[in-house]
Amino acid sequence: MFKQPVTFAFDSVQQCTAQIRRHMLNEMAANGIRNVVLGSKMISAILSNPGFESELAGEVEAVGMKFVDSHSPFGYELNLNVPDPGLRRRMVYTHCLAMEIAASLGVDTIAVHIGSNHEPPLSDFPIKVHFDRIRDALDQLLPVAERLGITICIENIWFPINTADRLLEIKAAFDTPALGFCYDSGHANILAQAPAHVPGSEVWQQWQNSGCGEPPLETRTLEKMLPHVVNCHLHDNDGSHDQHLIPGRGNIDWTHIIALLKQAPRLKCIQSEVLPIYTGEPIRPTVEAFTRLAEL
Fold first, then answer.
1. CB neighbours (10 Å) of residue 218?
2. Does the reported pTM lie above 0.70?
3. Which of 31, 80, 119, 260 could link 137 by a cystine bridge, Cβ 3.0 to 4.6 Å?
4. Is the peptide bond preceding residue 285 cis, with omega within 30 degrees of 0?
5. Phi/psi at 21 (nearest 5 deg)?
6. Which of 126-131's residues contact partners 24+ apart within 8 Å by CB, and which partners?
């Protein structure tokens, strides 16, 4: 069994009416879910309407659930490497507010995207410039995280600047427990499977556009990240793209992944990032899949 709490994502909250949102929370609770992710769309909705925070907190509490981990808003304008000075000020401010919201709801981990470098204007800058911007953002964000008791967890994706090796370079610049990693199994699997390495594939082209050559066949993402993994996004795919499938419906070796995660010294929670509204997956098979993972 997992020593850490298992928490489940509730996606697309901004697209739900209040009635549908409450139905989804009831459905999650009826299937045994007790912990829910304070997702990026939830935080964005609270930023747009501060009164929504207490409303959402009341709805979660009413069905016997609680927030355990969180994901900060993301996208070009909110990723840590955004180049425009005005957008950078907004980006830092947004992440600070996101951490304040997470802390007020009892959450102590927040996943953050550092960004990508495969499209203009981002592809026009060398890796060092991206890293300078990322470090500048973290210089401003980490003192806030330390004050709030939150760990910022930077996430592996499949772009050249957020592979496991790159995350380790960033972590080496900050000797603080307020910075850790969010291991994403689906993102890692994309770099570990053949489709990403076929010339002309989407991932192959993204690496070419970045001026970083061909994507590496990376099969040891979790092994590299493991000492600093604080939270994790678990979902499956077939290696071709980010599908957010129920574990077991793709080709990830879950026996291997779970055995490693159970050794992670800093791990605080296990998160299902299966997205029920996005994928159309029922709640019960998702819960059952995570029950099976816990038994590995």
1. 18
2. yes
3. 80
4. no
5. -60, -45
6. 127/160, 127/161, 127/212, 130/81, 130/161, 131/161, 131/169, 131/170
Please write the tens of the pLDDT for every residue from 5-59.
999 998 877 778 899 999 999 999 999 999 999 999 999 999 999 999 999 999 9
Mean pLDDT (whole number) for 235-264: 97
